[in-house]
What we know:
It is a single chain. This protein is α/β, with parallel strands linked by helices. The chain has two domains: 114 residues; 146 residues, no CATH class. Helices cover 53% and strands 12% of the residues. A five-stranded mixed β-sheet has the order 2-1-5-7-6, sandwiched between helices. A two-stranded antiparallel sheet has the order 3-4. Helix 3 crosses helix 4. The longest helix has 19 residues. The protein is elongated.
Amino acid sequence: MTELLKNAWEGWRQLNSGGKLGAVLLAALLFLWLTGKWKEQKALFLYTAVMAVCCIFPVTAAALMLYQTRFYDYEWVWSLVPSTAVAAWACARFVEERPGRSGLSAAALLTGALLLCGGLGYQEFDLSFEGQERQKAEEVLALAMQDVQGERCLWAPRQILACARGWDGSIRLLYGRDMWETSLGAYSYDVYDPALESLYQWMEHTDESGEALWDKGQDQVKLSGEECLRIAVEEGANCILLPGRITQTAAESLAEPFGGQLQTVGDYYLLTL
């Protein structure tokens, strides 16, 4: 519950950092109230106003997040608020108040204001950077998989796993993108086994020595590289890409108990079993 309250407390600021649709909604509600236009659609106005307050106030916002089974991030509670419809309603009534040229000017100003709202609540992404990262990952996969015969079960850092299935659909993964992008499993009650989650934490946060610290709730758990590799092998992994930040000595020490072949592939160490 503490985590939910923290996310709800910071949620409003984060929501408006990528766009001002929330602020536009509040301005629309204020305009409808002051002009008396809200009486045209009392039910819609009152529902929108009440739900907007509930989404902004941290305690009620946390309750809504909990109601949505905790699979959702804060911004998704705003799906309960008809923001676009009410903003459009207010804009239409605003233009009606100023017919003729002034009405067109008002419409142009309102359109410009909306276009200046960033991503209208959604963060922008650098698609060129995403493309470069994907190309690098595909190059690593091509080198890593060229000599592997039979069924391949891959365990690797998430930037590699994110494009592995698309690069070759025959590759089996220990876990997919829904491990770190929980919204992809928003309509499912299935969860990963804690052991697999520990593998992900180790792969993403291991240091040069092959050890990692995992902040699991209120506790900090130390993850051993050798133990994580053992679990991965038991789960069926036979192609393991170790992060390049691990020293070569540590990588060789981790691979030794499993008797596989260790080689350098780009910025990674490939262990094949």
